[in-house]
Amino acid sequence: QVQLVESGGGLVQAGGSLRLSCVVSGRSVSNYHMGWFRQGPGKEREFVAAIVWIVSRTIYADSVKGRFTISRDNVKNTVYLQMNSLKPEDTAVYYCASPASAGNVPLSLVDSYHYWGQGTQVTVSS
User: Fold this and answer.
1) What is the Cα Rg of the chain in Å?
2) What is the model's pLDDT at position 56?
3) Residue 90: phi, psi to the nearest 5?
4) How far apart (Å, rounded) are the C-alpha atoms in residues 8 and 22?
5) Average pLDDT, whole number, for the chain?
């Protein structure tokens, strides 16, 4: 069974940093696309970042580009989201996700993903 478990969320002041982790079991992060999404209060789930499995190419939403970094550790089978210069509008539940296969899918779309973690809360105060 494929399972994704996020951790690292918490409360941080604006301008601070957090590092989210997604530990994956049931598949290797080096062989599948991985993505991060977030859902703020009263908002729809939105794309944050993704990493393409074959060459580690990264993709970012414009709202986080230059502040967030997605990476993976193949030994630990873990995907990370380093979040710097956090803003109150970054407050959301953050989800780790992966598609059903390693095929070519639009990684910025929620519907491209099949496996999801339970989410971890990130709260950024002013």
Assistant:
1) 13
2) 80
3) -80, -10
4) 9
5) 96
